[in-house]
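Audit log entry. Action: structure prediction of a protein-small molecule complex. Ligand: 2'-deoxyinosine 5'-triphosphate. The ligand was supplied as SMILES and no pocket hint was given, so placement is left entirely to the predictor. Protonation state taken as written. Sequence taken verbatim from the request; no trimming, no tag removal. Recorded inputs:
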Amino acid sequence: MTRPPDEWAVVSGSTHREPAGSGPGEGELGERGPGESRLGESYLGEGGPGEGRPVESRDAPRRVVLASRNDAKLVELRRILAVAGLAVELVALPDGPDVPETGATFAENALIKARDAARVTGLPAVADDSGLAVDALGGMPGVLSARWSGLLPGAGRAERDAANNALVLAQLADVPEERRGAAFVCAAAVVTPDGAEQVVHGQMCGRLVRVPRGDGGFGYDPLFLPDGQNRTSAELSPAEKDAISHRGRAFGQLAGVLRELLAI
Ligand SMILES: O=c1nc[nH]c2c1ncn2[C@H]1C[C@H](O)[C@@H](COP(=O)(O)OP(=O)(O)OP(=O)(O)O)O1
Ligand SMILES: [Mg+2]
């Protein structure tokens, strides 16, 4: 069985704080110059990065940056955190170079993205690294899910999703029903500007259909039949998907972590 371990359904991260300056050095996680590191100024009040909590009115929701360039994730995560009743405003990442996802695991990549966003904006940052682990492919595409077809980010997101889906379907063409198991996996990371970090995981098990169905969601959703469902995750309503999805589970837990770390 190539699925991720069961404990990923529950909190599997640990919080630790690193002394200031012990994190990745400037440039290590991206090639921003000193001027560009102030990109986040518009997100802040009078305080700047390194000066602690941005100045906000006492009752305003805390601003948290989502370290993602995937608008579909931003939409899902705003929904999930709102349902969790968390008083945060999830803001999009300012324009800038993408940090390379060089990690061997979803957790490593989520931390890479969140650390970079916290450094650039001076805000607490959350990141989602997620993907599809297919049993018949030995757990791949896994962390390579976004670039499985080889199409690079220059191609549009819809085009990349379609090419990834076509490739996985072709690879599984001869794989019989009983070996079409797969799981969506999500690592959700939070990194605060003062260096606190935590990662939690969520997963959704299911199997892959032979013909894509549905136009909701994104990515591999039209191929994925969650366990216990007769509709693909692209055919579920947004609320139905959130209730069972890897992202819904991971960020449902991360909401509790955020409450503690941000004291909200
Ligand atoms: O709920 C999902 N439904 C369908 N497909 C999904 C889902 N969740 C992740 N996926 C797929 C899409 C992409 O091929 C890869 C994520 O890759 P991943 O690097 O985490 O995201 P991304 O590059 O789209 O955006 P970003 O890194 O800027 O957050 O897994
Ligand atoms: Mg990515």
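Audit: result stored. The pocket of magnesium ion (ligand 2) is lined by residues 101, 146 (CB under 6 Å). The beta strands are 16-17, 62-66, 88-92, 125-134, 181-191, 196-208, 224-226.
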